[in-house]
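input
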Amino acid sequence: MLHRLSRIRGFHVGATDGPLGHIDDFIVDAATWDIRYLVIDTSNWLGGKWVAVSPASVTGIEWATRSVTLGLTQDEIKNSPSLDEANVPSYELTPRFVIL
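output
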């Protein structure tokens, strides 16, 4: 079954040892169109940030509860590379809107 990526944005993320944030975005390889990373927003944890996690770490998707389970611990997710460390171009990191 195929689904739009926008449908998964906002899904809660569960680690092997408990919940940790939600899916905020996706990083796609411009040459191959492969999904290279899931961008996980961990800001609901003190000192949280956006981290890049491989889609290969996904062990399950629950459509009814809008959640994604990763085969990683909370610490592994928190210590995943930031968007800067994942070599995302700076123009991709700027907001798409300006608040005046």
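quick obs: The radius of gyration is 14 Å.
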